[in-house]
Amino acid sequence: MDAYQAYFSSQPTTVIAQDLLGRLLIYDSDQGHFAGYIVETEAYLGVKDSASHAFNHRRTNYSESLYGDPGDLYIYQIRANYCFDVVVQARNEPQGILIRAIEPLANLDQMAKNRHQTGVNLTNGPGKVMQALGIQDRHLDGLPMDQAPLKIDLSQRRQPQKIMVTPRIGVNQDGDSGKDLCRFYVWGNPYVSKSKRRDDDHDHHGWLKKEN
DNA sequence: GAAAAGATGTTCT
DNA sequence: GAACATCTTTTCA
C-alpha cells in the first residue's frame, strides 16, 4: 500500500474527515488548473450508517466505487447534481468522506463561468463545487485520486482556528444515524454551506494565519 | 432571509 | 410510485 492509500485508511473516518479541512483540492482539466482549500466535509460510516449509500450492505453497480480502495473517487448524482466522496478504509469497507465546500484559490474566473454565479455561491455546497470545476459526468468515478486529475494535496495543510461539529445536512433525520455528529467545517469560513454571513470571520476566514 | 416548489437520475417498495 | 448525501427560482417578509 502506498502512502496515499495509508493516509485514507489508518485512522477512523471521522478523524480523517477533520484532517482534510485546510487541505488543497486540485483539478487539472482542459479548462485550466483549479484549486481550493477544503472547508467542509461529512463522514459516511458504511453499512451501519442509515444515511450511507452502503447502508445494510446495499451494493449496486452504481455505488460499486464506494467499496474500492482508500483514496479512490466515488462520484454520484443526486437529483440534478453531481457530488463526490473520497473512499476511505480498506477495500470492501464502504466508508467515504463527502467534500461539501471549498474556498476557491485558483481559476476563479472559470468557476464563475461554469456556475453563472459569483462570490460565496461559487463553491458553498457539494453540487456547486462540482459545477464550478466543470465536472458534469462520472468519467472520474472509481479512479485512484493520486492518479487522477482530481486529487487532494496531502503535502501541506492550512490550519483551521476552530473545527465545528454538527449533524449532517440533507440526510433523513429520522434514521438511526440521522443526528450523528459527522459534519465538520472550518469555523468562520464564508464558503461553508448554509452558513450565515454575520458569522463570518472577515479577517482570516477562520484560518490560523494569513495566506501561508 | 426564510420557505416552498420544481428539475432531475437511481434505487427500493 | 416514493425517497433521496442538491440547487435554483420565486414568493413573502
From TrEMBL:
It comes from the Bacteria. InterPro entries: Formyl_transferase-like_C_sf, MPG, MPG_sf. Residues 197-212 have a biased composition (Basic and acidic residues). Its EC number is 3.2.2.-. Residues 193-212 are annotated as: Disordered. It is an enzyme of class 3 (hydrolase). GO terms for molecular function: alkylbase DNA N-glycosylase activity; DNA binding. SUPFAM superfamilies: FMT C-terminal domain-like. Keywords: DNA damage, DNA repair, Hydrolase. GO terms for biological process: base-excision repair. Belongs to the DNA glycosylase MPG family. This is Putative 3-methyladenine DNA glycosylase. It comes from Limosilactobacillus gastricus DSM 16045.
